[in-house]
C-alpha cells in the first residue's frame, strides 16, 4: 500500500467523522493512530461529553463488524467472551460467541464492571485470541477495543488495574466542547441524528493493509534513544512510584510511526514523539501519594520531563 493511499484512508475517515462529531480534530486523529497501529483506545471523561458517540462514529465509518458491550457490575466474563452450551437437539456442545468476536468492540463504561470481568479482556487485547474451556480461538483482524470510562471518583466504578491500562495504546480525555461547538451540536442534532445516515468509507481489507504498512516508517536510532531517555526519566522521577514499562516504549514506537503516516511522511520527527507523550505514557505512570493532589499529575510530570530531555538535532537525524 502506498503512502498516499494511507493518507487517503485517514482523510476519508476524518471527513466522515466530522459529519457527526463537531470539533475534536485532535481526538479523532489520535483514534486514527490507534486504528492504523492496531492499538486499543481508552476514552475518559465525565458523562455526556460524547465518548460513546465518537466510538460509534468511528465504527460506522469502517466496513467491519461492530459490537457494543454495556459494562455493568453484574456482567460476567462469559457474557462477553462466549460460552459452550449443550445443544439437546444435536446432543453435543456448541460454542456461542460473545460480542468480543467482532472487528470493533465498544466497551462502554468499562470501569463499571468488576475487576474479574475487566481482566477477562487482557488476553484478547494483547494476543488477539480468547481461551474458553481450554480451547483457544483466534480473533479476526482487525481487532480494536474502544473503551469508555467515567472518572473513578464517580460512584459505582472500579478503577482499572495497571495491567489493564497498559494494554491500551492511547488514553484520550475527550473534554467539553467550546460554546460555539456546542451551539453547532444543537443545530446539527435538532432534527435528525446524523449517525443514523452515516455510511462506511474504509473497507476491512484497506485497513488491514494499512496496519501492515505502518511499521515500515523510518525511525532513526537517535529518536529511539530519545524515547528510551523519556521512559527512563519516568522511572527515576521522585514523584513516580511506577514508570513507563517496556510495553509502553514499544507502544510509543508504534504510535509515532502511525502518526507520521497520517501526516504524509515515511519518517518520524522529534515533534511526533512530543505530541504523543501524554496520550501514550500518562496512563502508564503511577504517581506517588503527594503528587496525586494535582489535577493531572502525570501530565505535569511528563511536561517537566520533556523540558529536560535532550532533543535529537536535525543533524543527528541524518
UniProtKB/TrEMBL annotation:
InterPro entries: AAA+_ATPase (IPR003593), ATPase_AAA-3 (IPR011703), CbbQ/NirQ/NorQ/GpvN (IPR050764), ChlI/MoxR_AAA_lid (IPR041628), P-loop_NTPase (IPR027417). It holds the Pfam family AAA_lid_2. It comes from the Bacteria. Residues 37-178 form the AAA+ ATPase domain. One of its GO terms (molecular function) is hydrolase activity. Its EC number is 3.6.3.-. It is an enzyme of class 3 (hydrolase). The keyword DNA repair does not apply. Keywords: Hydrolase. PANTHER family: METHANOL DEHYDROGENASE REGULATOR, MOXR FAMILY PROTEIN. This is MoxR-like ATPase. It comes from Paenibacillus eucommiae. The lineage of its organism: Bacteria, Bacillati, Bacillota, Bacilli, Bacillales.
Amino acid at each position: 500500500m502506498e503512502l498516499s493511499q494511507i493518507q487517503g484512508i485517514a482523510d476519508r475517515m476524518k471527513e466522515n467523522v466530522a459529519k457527526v462529531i463537531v470539533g475534536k480534530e485532535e481526538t479523532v486523529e489520535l483514534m486514527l493512530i490507534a486504528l492504523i497501529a492496531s492499538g486499543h483506545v481508552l476514552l475518559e471523561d465525565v458523562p455526556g461529553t460524547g465518548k460513546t458517540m465518537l466510538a460509534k462514529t468511528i465504527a460506522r465509518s469502517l466496513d467491519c463488524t461492530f459490537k457494543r458491550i454495556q459494562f455493568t457490575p453484574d456482567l460476567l466474563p462469559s457474557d462477553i467472551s462466549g460460552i459452550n452450551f449443550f445443544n439437546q437437539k444435536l446432543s453435543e456442545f456448541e460454542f456461542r460467541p460473545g460480542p468480543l468476536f467482532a472487528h470493533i468492540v465498544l466497551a462502554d463504561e468499562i470501569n463499571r464492571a468488576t475487576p474479574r470481568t475487566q481482566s477477562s479482556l487482557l488476553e484478547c487485547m494483547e494476543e488477539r485470541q480468547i481461551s474458553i474451556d481450554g480451547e483457544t480461538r483466534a480473533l479476526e483482524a482487525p481487532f480494536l477495543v474502544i473503551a469508555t470510562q467515567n472518572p473513578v471518583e464517580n460512584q459505582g466504578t472500579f478503577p482499572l488495574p495497571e495491567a489493564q491500562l497498559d494494554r491500551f495504546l492511547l488514553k484520550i480525555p475527550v473534554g467539553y466542547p467550546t460554546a460555539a461547538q456546542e451551539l453547532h451540536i444543537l443545530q446539527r442534532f435538532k432534527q435528525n441524528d446524523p449517525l443514523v445516515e452515516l455510511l462506511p468509507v474504509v473497507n476491512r481489507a484497506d485497513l488491514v493493509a494499512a496496519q501492515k504498512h505502518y511499521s515500515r516508517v523510518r525511525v532513526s536510532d537517535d529518536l529511539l534513544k530519545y524515547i528510551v531517555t523519556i521512559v527512563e526519566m519516568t522511572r527515576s522521577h521522585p514523584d513516580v512510584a511506577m514508570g513507563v514499562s517496556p510495553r509502553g516504549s514499544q507502544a510509543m514506537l508504534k504510535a509515532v510511526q502511525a502518526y507520521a503516516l497520517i501526516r504524509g511522511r515515511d519518517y518520524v520527527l522529534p515533534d511526533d514523539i512530543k505530541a504523543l507523550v501524554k496520550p501514550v505514557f500518562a496512563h502508564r505512570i503511577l504517581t506517588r501519594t503527594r503528587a496525586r493532589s494535582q489535577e493531572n499529575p502525570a501530565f505535569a510530570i511528563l511536561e517537566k520531563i520533556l523540558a529536560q530531555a535532550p532533543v535529537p538535532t536535525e543533524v543527528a537525524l541524518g
